[in-house]
Amino acid sequence: MENQVNAAFFKPETYSRFYPPMGGASVPVSIDKGGEFVILPGFCDVHVHFREPGFSYKETIASGTAAAARGGYTAVCPMPNLDPVPDSAQTLAVQKNIIDRDACIRVYPYGAITRGEKGTDLADLDALAPDVIAFSDDGRGVQSESMMRAAMERAKSLGKIIAAHCEDNTLLHGGYIHAGTYAAAHGHRGISSESEWRQVERDLRLAKETGCAYHVCHVSTKESVALIRAAKAEGVDVTCETGPHYLTLDENDLQEDGRFKMNPPLRGKEDREALIEGLLDGTIDMIATDHAPHSAEEKSRGLEKSLMGVVGLETAFPVLYTYLVRPGVLTLERLVELLAVAPRERFGIPAGEEYSVWELGRKYAIDPESFLSKGRATPFAGREVYGTCCLTVCGGRTVYRDEK
Question: What residue ranges define each of the domains in the chain, with the CATH number in brackets?
């Protein structure tokens, strides 16, 4: 590779011109003369699950950050559905000690909104604030409007973001995939789109009333996109994310396999099209993987009984490059903005000497058995994609190198 790529690409003094300061108007990328390799800013994922402490058989900080580095990520934000839940300075310290010991890239943990993520009492937000990137009860929606209002008011006073998993439990009715044509045809119980957008609607009203900085996690429905677009036009301090699988797959791609089960579920074609429109007009601010590993046994029970969650850190860029950039839906610069720049700007995550080098022309089939993550469940298994990460550098250190 050293004979093919200009050696200047790897010098820190030349890298600065590829990564504009936060708030930059453009996102330059650099391609070698043959167009074969590209150097990109280190990606930043504000929504991952690394399962440690409490569930290290699914993933660890070590395996999760190794997988992230292989995917070109140099900063990640793990969600707080752990054991113990980081709902106080003491419980957060358990996670932070593991991060300090084992992480190979930068890791910025979330603190919980409520104690134990049970939705009944506020977590110790004041004590958590100095050491967390934001507050979230990801994995479940905050059901109580008064509790969410109190959380937003406190987060506002602390200068922190509330990042919400929006899900109204009263509208779930035992569903586990999208309530659409596939569920009806195959006898599955469906999750309505309203279970997501109804809580988005509530939270946007609360964010407008409180002035809290609000972020919507894993948007999946056309109604949510429309609500967020309207709220932004009204001046509400809101951003949102969606995932690679919601942008490139829909219910028509479902198979009777646990690797297609996640929460929120793959929605209809019209929802996927609305998400892409939201990317193009700026309604959707960033792309996050919601990397959510489980054991092979937990994902082997089919659509009905498998646990919800798929992995995505090692496939995000190749999938998005293959299915959105190569066909001309997005430019490469816009994709880099969504993966690297916008997440850092919204969450105040600094960009240092962090970048990755990609070979864009190599075509290959995604093989979950090659993953560095402990998780193997991906709806993209066997899909042919372009884009191989050759090298990732974080803080001036090589954290991943493709020895091939």
Answer: 30-401 (3.20.20.140)
